[in-house]
Structures are given as structure tokens and as C-alpha cells.
Write a structure and sequence with these properties.
It is a single chain. By secondary structure, this protein is an alpha/beta fold. The protein has two domains: 137 residues, 3-Layer(aba) Sandwich (Rossmann fold), CATH 3.40.50; 63 residues. 38% of the residues lie in helices and 14% in strands. It contains ten helices and eight strands. The radius of gyration is 19 Å and the shape is elongated.
């Protein structure tokens, strides 16, 4: 069950992570994009399906070792090298080409109505996400960009959470102190880091059961935010 702790008393804004909080990938995989295999095979049909798992794992390691969200092309080159495929300019361009957002991403069912109600209550909102710079455009395509006044995006700031700069960039852009902001993330460790910096925080666990002793207060749906502001 949801951890019940006193609601923050001076919250004027909500800072939200993106993936796992607001949206999820179609097909269940964040990176690489869902059409990665299809695009590569269109250039080199000789690559067998079983080689993609190792290439994606190599990309995951590269991603994890990067101090910030890496450049799209550099990330794709690592996987293509693992596949033994030539990273031609055309293939790299095809891998990062724009596709309809709803082909690769979808909002959680509780997101739009919750954001609309927060907006109606004049609660300000910002995004704090380890993501590429096109995140605001993806939000626009999904119809929710207008809810957010500020974005703290790792690829633009050159760091990732839990670096304090990620949290502070968002609250500073809103002209608010940490204590006036409630941070929401699906990673409890990143919420704990925000709490240690003076932010209020909640971890969202969309798929119970919850840990027996959650390290931070938690919620199971975004709608529960409405009880806190």
C-alpha cells in the first residue's frame, strides 16, 4: 500500500521525471528506439536477429558510463560497431529521423487529467529528466508540453540525476526554493537525493507490490499528487 506521510506544506510547483512517470515506450523498451532493428535491417539484411541483443547491451553499457546523456550518433555507432555494421551517414540519419511520437511513446492513463487539474489549481510544473534535447518536442507531439514552464534535460546540462544541478536548474527557472517544490521520480534513490537537497519528494511505484520499507514516501498513481498540493 502507499506510504502515508504528511503532505508537504508549502508546495507551489511539481518537478516531474519523464519516463516511468509521465510516459512509457511502446513495446516496453526506452533505448534504442522501437524501430532500431527494422531500420538497421533495411540497410543490412544480413544481420541476424540474435546479434541485436548483444549490440543493445553494448549500447546500454555506453549509456551507463556516459557522464551525461550521450549524442544520438555516438550511441548508435557503439551498437552498429557491435553488429559489425557500417555507421554510414545515411544509416545514422535514418536512426535519428523523426517519427510520430505516438509510434514510440504513450502517456500513462492518469497523466493528462492530473496535469489538467494541477494546472487548474495553478500549481506550476517543470520536467527534470535524463533525456535527449528533443524531449520538449516529444511532449508537444503528445499534447502536454504546454503544462511545463521549464525543462532540466541531462543532454543540455551535461550531467544526470542525482547531480544537484539537475534539480536546481528546474526550481531556479521557476524562481522557487527547493522547499517550495515537490519532486516525483520512479527511482527512489533519485527522490532521496532531491529530499537531501531540501525538496519534498515522492517516488512513484506504478507496479506494486511496494518495498516493505520504502526509502522515501511513495505513491502508486500520479493522481495521488492531487492530495499533496
Amino acid at each position: 500500500m502507499t506510504t502515508r506521510t504528511p503532505a508537504p506544506t508549502d508546495v507551489q510547483a511539481v518537478l516531474l521525471d519523464s519516463g516511468g512517470v509521465l510516459m512509457r515506450p511502446v513495446g516496453g523498451r526506452w533505448n534504442p528506439r522501437a524501430d532500431f532493428e527494422e531500420t538497421v535491417l533495411a540497410h543490412d539484411p544480413s544481420i541476424t536477429e540474435d546479434r541485436f541483443a548483444a549490440a543493445i547491451a553494448a549500447g546500454d553499457r555506453f549509456f551507463a558510463d556516459s557522464p551525461s546523456t550521450p549524442d544520438h550518433d555516438d550511441y548508435h555507432r557503439v551498437m552498429l560497431h557491435s553488429l559489425g555494421a557500417e555507421a554510414t551517414p545515411q544509416l545514422l540519419a535514418d536512426l535519428r529521423r523523426e517519427v510520430p511520437a505516438d509510434r514510440v511513446l504513450e502517456l500513462y492513463p492518469d497523466v493528462r487529467s492530473t496535469l489538467e487539474e494541477l494546472s487548474r489549481r495553478q500549481v506550476r510544473m517543470a520536467v527534470v529528466s535524463d533525456a535527449w534535447p528533443d524531449l520538449p518536442d516529444l511532449r508537444a507531439a503528445l499534447g502536454i508540453r504546454h503544462f511545463f514552464e521549464a525543462y532540466a534535460i541531462s543532454a543540455e546540462l551535461g550531467c544526470t540525476k542525482p547531480d544537484p544541478r539537475m534539480y536546481h536548474h528546474a526550481s531556479t527557472a521557476l524562481g522557487l526554493t527547493p522547499g517550495q517544490c515537490l519532486f516525483i521520480d520512479d527511482d527512489p534513490d533519485l527522490v532521496r537525493a532531491a529530499v537531501d537537497l531540501g525538496y519534498a519528494g515522492r517516488a512513484i511505484h506504478r507496479n506494486p507490490p511496494l518495498p516493505d520499507v520504502p526509502p522515501v514516501p511513495s505513491i502508486t498513481t500520479l493522481t495521488e499528487l492531487l492530495e499533496l498540493v
